[in-house]
User: Fold these one by one.
Assistant:
Number 1:
Amino acid sequence: MDYNASFQISATGMAVEKLRLDVTAANLANIHSTAASADQLYRPQRVVSTEVPLNFAQQFGQLYARSGGAHIVDVAALSAPPRLVHEPGHPHADGQGFVSYPGINHTSEMVNLMSALRAYEANVVAMNAAKTMTARTLEIGGQA
């Protein structure tokens, strides 16, 4: 039996969720960032991922998974309009006294953060289950 596919599938899921966590943290860190011009303003980002199809193979008459999981395609900048706040004394204020802040939705980012955390934890549980199964198989083989 080959347990490597189980570990690899969980590892790809953990890599995607870790990047989602990093990108969400960057969005939250820049929620109050300003810039001298609107084209230099921080743009919120999202991770784009896709599936790696699950492939199967046969070994010793048994079917097992050979590969699968998730694949990071891109980290894409969102086209969210900036948040305008009236702060006439700010160094980056425009002629009318408005300062542009990134169009980051705090609530949405926090939901994304929690979702990434829970998905990462689920992948860790799946990997630990595969590790336990592998250990039990070795125990059975060692008793013969």
Note: Residues 4-80+106-139 form one domain.
Number 2:
Amino acid sequence: MNTPQPPFGSGGNPAGGILPGAGRATFGQASTSAMSMKWSALNDAARIVATLAGMNSEVMTPELRNFPAVVRDAGGWRRELVEQGVDDLSVIMEAGIAALLAVHGRGVDARPAALSLWHEYQTARATLLALMPRAEELRRAF
């Protein structure tokens, strides 16, 4: 007779692997790391789009690099909106780059389409960055 195995990482206690309540699980520092990796990958994708558009890629500023950590520290609704926004923008960029590479692979000029995707990316990124708390808001929280 086969007995079910406890969920991975539950320490042998099947109930320990079940997340209480409904909704999105919170994994603390691990989710920040995942968010940082997604944000970094998104910026890498933007560099590819800039290249396909015939433009120079942007320099990663400290504001852009630290964005996931600042949003993590702000928490709450900002963090939730940013996480969802990064996920949505990642889907858009993935599909857009796949289409651009297909067009480019056929020898067709992909620059106009890449420029359009670049503008979409910049608009969405600006919206996400606008969710970053201002310095005085962060000081008030502490």
Note: Residues 27-141 form one domain.
